[in-house]
C-alpha cells in the first residue's frame, strides 16, 4: 500500500513538473528563435547593428518587468494562477509577433513575450520547488531549466529547417506549447506552502498527502511549514542581515549566469560565425550543435545536482568553461576561421556551452527557489529573476558592439575572466543545499550556519 502511494506521489509530482516546465520550453524557444530569425529580419527590415540589439533586447526588457510584476501576483493569487497568466501572455505575444509588419510592432510583440518569460522564470521554479519532496527537488526543479534548453535547441533546429521559409513560421510555432501550458495548469494543484501561507491548512494537507509517499511524511512536512510560517514579509526585509547570505548566493549566481556570456553565444552565434567566414547554413548548424550540447549538459546537471550537489557541480565544471573560452578567443586572435581552425572554434563553443550550462544555468533557478525564506520567497525569487534578466539585457545590448570594438578574441577572453571570477564566488559564498528541506535552509539562515563550510573554516582559522 505504501509502495503504491509512493508511486502515485512520484507520478503526480513528475506530471506537475513536466506541465509547469512547459513554461521553460516557451522561455527557451522564444529567446532562442531570434538568433535564426535575425538573419532574415535584418534584411527584411533593414536592421542596423543597433536595431538588431534592440529587437533582441526587447524580450529581455519585457522579462525584467515581468519577473518583477509576477512576485506580488504569485503571492496574492497563487503560483498556479500566475503561471496561467504567463501562458496567456505567451499566446498573445506569439500572435502579435507572427503577424508583425513593422519594426515597432515586432519590438512590442517581443516585449509582451518577455513579460511572459519573466513571469515564468520567477514563478515556475518556486511552484515546482514547493510541491517537490526534498530528495527529488533538485531533479524536478532542473526540469524547468532542461525545458528551457530544450526549447532553445528546438528553436535552433526550427531555424535551420525553416531557413528558406518565412521567419513568421519560426515565431508562430510557439503557439503550440503556450496552449499546452495554459490548459495543463488548469488541472494542477496549488502549492501547499502558498496555501498554508494563506491559512488554508486543510487544503495544504490534502495536496501534501497526494504528493508524498505516506500521510506521516505529509504531516511532518506540514508541521514544518506551519512552524516556519511567518506573515508575508515586506520588500525591505530582503536586505535584513540574517537574510543577506541568501541574497548574495542567489543574486550572485543569477548575475553570473548571464555575465559569463552564455546568452551572448545563444543570441548571436549564427551572426558571429557568419561574419567570421562561415556560410549562413554552416552558422545555423553550429547553433544546432550548441543547442544539443546545452540539452545534454542540462540533463546531466539534473542528475548531478542531487548526486554531487549544487555547489560541487559548479566548482567542478566552471574551470572547463574558462579553458574553452580562452581557446575560442585564441582562434579569433589568429584568424583561424577556416579548415581545422574553424572546427576548433566549433568544438570550443560546444565545450564552453556544456561546462557553463551544466553548472551555472542548471543551478540558477534551483538555488534561487531554495534559499529564500517562505515569507519572502516570491519577492526574493523576483529579485533573482530581475538580476538575471537585467544582466541578460546588458549582454544582449552590448555583445555585437563588444565584438566590433574588442574583436572576437577580446570578447571571449573577457567572458573567460568572468567565468574564473564566478568559480571564486561559488567557492566563497554559495552553500550546499542538496537533500535539505526548505524549512531546514531557512533555519540555517536564522541561526547563522548558512555559509559554505570552506568559508566558515577559513574564518575560524
3D structure, described in words:
This is Sugar porter family MFS transporter. Pfam families: Sugar_tr (PF00083). This protein is mainly α and 461 residues long. The chain has helices spanning 2-44, 49-77, 79-98, 103-131, 134-161, 167-172, 175-186, 192-197, 201-211, 215-228, 244-259, 262-275, 280-307, 310-333, 339-371, 377-429, 438-446, 453-460. The chain has a single domain, classed as MFS general substrate transporter like domains (Growth Hormone, Chain: A, Up-down Bundle). The chain contains 18 helices and no strands. Helix 14 packs across helix 16. The N and C termini lie far apart (52 Å). The model is unreliable at 454-461 (pLDDT under 50).
Features:
461 residues; globular; disordered C terminus
Provide a brief overview of the structure.
The protein has 18 helices and no strands. By secondary structure, the protein is mainly alpha-helical.
Mean pLDDT: 84
Secondary structure class reads: mainly alpha
Briefly note the CATH topology name: Growth Hormone, Chain: A
Beta-strand segment tally:
0
Shape type: globular
**Tally of distinct domains:** 1
The amount of beta strand, in percent, is under 5%
Indicate the percent of residues in helices.
Answer: over 70%
Q: Major sheet, described briefly?
A: none
> Could you name the CATH homologous superfamily?
MFS general substrate transporter like domains
What top-tier CATH class fits best?
Answer: Mainly Alpha
Distance between the termini: 52 Å
CATH architecture: Up-down Bundle
The radius of gyration computed from the alpha-carbon positions, rounded to a whole number of angstroms, is 22 Å
Amino acid at each position: 500500500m505504501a509502495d503504491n502511494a509512493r508511486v502515485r506521489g512520484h507520478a503526480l509530482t513528475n506530471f506537475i513538473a513536466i506541465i509547469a516546465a512547459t513554461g521553460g520550453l516557451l522561455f527557451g524557444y522564444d529567446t532562442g528563435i531570434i538568433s535564426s530569425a535575425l538573419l532574415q529580419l535584418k534584411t527584411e527590415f533593414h536592421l542596423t547593428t543597433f536595431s538588431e540589439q534592440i529587437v533582441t533586447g526587447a524580450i529581455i526588457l519585457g522579462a525584467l518587468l515581468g519577473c518583477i510584476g509576477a512576485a506580488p501576483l504569485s503571492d496574492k493569487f497563487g503560483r498556479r494562477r500566475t503561471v496561467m497568466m504567463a501562458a496567456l501572455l505567451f499566446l498573445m505575444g506569439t500572435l502579435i509577433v507572427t503577424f508583425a509588419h513593422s519594426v515597432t510592432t515586432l519590438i512590442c510583440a517581443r516585449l509582451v513575450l518577455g513579460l511572459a518569460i519573466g513571469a515564468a522564470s520567477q514563478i515556475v521554479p518556486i511552484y515546482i520547488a514547493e510541491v517537490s519532496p526534498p530528495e527529488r527537488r533538485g531533479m524536478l526543479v532542473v526540469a524547468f531549466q532542461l525545458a528551457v534548453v530544450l526549447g532553445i535547441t528546438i528553436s535552433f533546429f526550427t531555424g535551420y529547417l525553416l531557413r528558406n521559409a518565412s521567419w513568421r513560421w519560426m515565431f508562430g510555432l510557439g503557439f503550440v506549447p503556450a496552449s499546452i501550458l495554459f490548459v495543463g495548469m488548469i488541472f494542477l494543484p496549488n502549492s501547499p506552502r502558498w496555501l498554508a501561507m494563506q491559512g488554508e491548512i486543510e487544503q495544504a494537507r490534502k495536496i501534501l498527502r497526494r504528493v508524498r509517499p505516506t500521510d506521516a511524511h505529509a504531516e511532518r512536512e506540514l508541521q514544518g511549514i506551519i512552524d516556519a510560517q511567518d506573515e508575508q514579509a515586506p520588500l525591505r526585509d530582503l536586505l535584513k542581515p540574517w537574510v543577506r547570505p541568501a541574497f548574495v548566493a542567489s543574486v550572485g549566481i543569477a548575475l553570473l549566469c548571464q555575465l559569463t556570456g552564455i546568452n551572448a553565444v545563444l543570441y548571436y552565434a549564427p551572426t558571429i560565425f557568419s561574419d567570421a567566414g562561415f556560410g549562413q547554413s554552416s552558422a545555423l548548424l553550429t547553433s544546432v550543435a550548441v543547442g544539443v550540447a546545452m540539452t545534454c549538459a542540462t540533463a546531466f546537471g539534473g542528475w548531478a545536482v542531487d548526486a554531487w550537489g549544487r555547489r560541487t557541480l559548479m566548482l567542478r565544471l566552471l574551470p572547463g568553461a574558462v579553458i574553452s573560452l580562452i581557446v575560442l578567443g585564441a582562434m579569433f586572435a589568429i584568424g583561424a576561421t577556416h579548415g581545422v581552425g574553424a572546427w576548433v572554434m566549433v568544438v570550443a563553443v560546444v565545450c564552453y556551452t556544456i561546462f557553463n550550462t551544466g553548472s551555472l544555468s542548471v543551478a540558477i533557478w534551483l538555488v534561487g527557489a531554495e534559499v529564500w525564506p517562505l515569507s519572502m520567497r516570491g519577492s526574493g525569487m523576483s529579485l533573482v529573476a530581475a538580476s538575471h534578466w537585467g544582466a541578460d539585457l546588458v549582454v544582449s545590448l552590448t555583445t555585437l558592439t563588444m565584438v566590433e570594438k574588442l574583436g572576437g578574441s577580446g570578447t571571449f577572453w573577457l567572458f573567460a575572466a568572468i567565468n574564473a571570477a564566478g568559480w571564486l564566488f561559488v567557492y566563497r559564498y554559495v552553500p550546499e543545499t542538496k537533500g535539505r528541506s526548505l524549512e531546514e535552509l531557512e533555519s540555517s539562515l536564522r541561526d547563522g550556519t548558512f555559509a559554505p563550510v570552506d568559508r566558515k573554516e577559513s574564518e575560524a582559522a
